[in-house]
Amino acid sequence: MDRNQITKWLKAPAKMANKYSLHAIYFCTGCGIIEVPPVITARWDAERFGVIPVATPRQANLFLITGYVSVKTLRAIIRTYEQMPEPKYTVGFGSCPINGGMYWDSYNTIKHLDKYIPIDGWIAGCMPRPEAIFIAVTHLWTLIDKEMANGYMRYKKNYKSYRRNQEMLLGKLEWPPLYPVSDEPRGNEQ
Amino acid sequence: MNKSLREKLESTFKDIRVTVLEENRIAVTAESHGVLAVLRFLKDAGFDHLALLSAVDWIEDNCFELCFILTCYMQSDDEVTGRQRLHIILKTKIPRGKPQFETITRIFPNAEPYEREIYELFGIKFEGHKRLTPLFLERNYDIPPFRKDFDTRKYVEEVFDKIPFVESKDK
Known about the structure:
The complex is a heterodimer of chains A (190) and B (171). By secondary structure, chain A is of the alpha/beta class. Chain A has helices spanning 6-11, 13-19, 36-40, 71-83, 96-99, 130-145, 151-157, 159-170, 185-189, and strands at 22-25, 51-54, 62-66, 89-93, 121-123. Chain A has one domain (21-156): 3-Layer(aba) Sandwich (Rossmann fold), CATH 3.40.50. In chain A, strands 2-1-3-4-5 form a five-stranded parallel sheet. Chain A is globular and about 50 Å long. Chain B is of the alpha/beta class. Chain B has a single domain, classed as NADH:ubiquinone oxidoreductase Nqo5 subunit (Beta Polymerase, domain 2, 2-Layer Sandwich), CATH 3.30.460.80. In chain B, strand 6, helix 3 (112-122) and strand 7 (125-127) form a beta-alpha-beta unit. Helix content of chain B is 23%, strand content 27%. The mean pLDDT of chain B is 86.
């Protein structure tokens, strides 16, 4: 163990343990998922960095959104994100979740993913190399250290705006709000 | 095979045009009312696999073009004799003002998802199709989005760009 980190471990052991065991939900959107199998298997072996894929969102705390997000996928992404236990971190992988990328004028892909769910970090590129995932993971460690990977807190704080944006695009959502949306009229109807 | 099939097609149907594109690829252009007969004829001639059904929007000519790509399962690529699988591209044009066509699911049942897709993305209605329900899209579009007069940039400005950012970008 790194001696410099002993104070960090003593100060916030839960945070440090959390930081070095990122469980990535194996959620495939778009073309970027083609980079993930070599990353998690023998060639690049993400377990060196403590990243391991898990099957269900209930066990995950890292959400890699790999590639373009169509409107139909966004529905699944929001549901997956809301099911993950806190603390949870989201990373947009590739240029498409950032600003649409090459699908900037497409009729059915969303352009800015951070309008709908909070994002802690971006990996730019089309496609990013698998090494970029590890750079992102090390950056995420720094952000967790500095308490800047606080997407889940921002989601709670701005939930009303996020929910409004989601409803603007997807219409009426069939699942109840994750956090109370108090002064909205349709919350009272249900 | 190639030559005799061409002669057979041209002798059976009057208003079709057969072009040999390559050695193993021929294109057949037919009138829209005669397509089903040509398809039945080709299926009986051994072309039992509908590989693709797609549409093209020729907006300058004011018509849609339907493309049926037929091939057969049994006649495979043969390295020894050099015989190759024959592909037939059957094309037909339908007017843009009246986007209707008869379903071919009675001849090729696997055309069902293709027809649903074309109905959704081009707005071509297939009469007699049992289940013309939405396949991919979730929202309603004024113009089906694969038509050439669908302005994707305007649509993006109206739908996606109208949604505001939750947090400020310059952070």
